[in-house]
Amino acid sequence: MAERRTLADPSVDGGRPDAVVVRDALGVGVAVGLSGFAFGITSAGSGLTLLQTCALSLLVFTGASQFALVGALAAGGSPLTAAAGAFFLGVRNAFYGLRLSQLLAFTRAVRPFAAQWVIDETAAVALAQPTRRSARVGFVVTGLSLYVLWNLTTLLGALGAEAIGDTDAWGLDAAGPAVFLALLAPMLTSATERAVAGLAVVLGLGLLPVLPAGVPVLVAALAAPVVLWAQGRRRGDGREGER
């Protein structure tokens, strides 16, 4: 039987041709990198300066957290609350890093630089590869293309927002949430994920009129443990009913 190459044995060479991996990685990097326009426009419209907007993309470089931060500030939330929401959204990247550190096995000198590129898209491309070599190629190409394009379009979006003036008058304040929802929707493949997303929307929108800006998104994070708890109770009740 031919040997199967899977992520369970990431040291095996071979697998997909580099050109195919590069093509797929560039597709992801370009498609998502263009969303930097929306962030630049949203950030400038929320009152951040050009330098602050570009610094967020250069140093933070995790789209959902960036949108959460500027969205909370635009809604009148305090910087502390806005930063807290962005932080909790960014924590997931630490869990990606735990898996990717084993898969990619970069040297100690490279790891601090690679950590800047540990985001949803690079993790998805790398984990989809059958070998360590292709995972490294996918991670690097996705990270490099996305980082460069995201920062470039952030700059152009912020400059464009300054040129057109009031972004609310053009409806551009909705660009950030719209892009984020467009990126998120295809990832909701299971009933559990859809239930978590639905409950988070209900909590976020329902509490928006009664809680300070930035706080509803923190409360919406409770959707995941609530749904998992409810599922656990349902399974437990089902097992008891079978006895």
Task: Write structural notes for this entry.
By secondary structure, the chain is an all-alpha fold. Helix content is 71%, strand content 0%. The protein is flat, with a radius of gyration of 20 Å. The termini are far apart. The model is unreliable at 1-13 (pLDDT under 50).
List the helices and strands and how they pair.
Layout (H helix, E strand, L loop, with lengths): L17 H16 L2 H10 L4 H11 L2 H12 L4 H12 L1 H13 L6 H5 L4 H8 L4 H33 L10 H10 L6 H17 L7 H6 L2 H20 L1
Care to give the gist of this entry?
By secondary structure, this protein is an all-alpha fold. It has helices at 18-33, 36-45, 50-60, 63-74, 79-90, 92-104, 111-115, 120-127, 132-164, 175-184, 191-207, 215-220, 223-242.
Q: On the 0-100 scale, what is the average pLDDT? A: 81
Strand content: under 5%
User: How does the overall form come out from the CA principal axes?
Assistant: flat
Secondary-structure element order, N to C: HHHHHHHHHHHHH
**Over all CA atoms, what is the radius of gyration?**
20 Å
Count of DSSP-assigned helices:
13
Distance between the termini: 44 Å
Poorly predicted parts:
1-13
Report the biggest beta sheet as strand number plus sense, adding barrel if it closes. Answer: none
Structural class: mainly alpha
Using DSSP, what is the number of strands?
Answer: 0
- Fraction in helix: over 70%
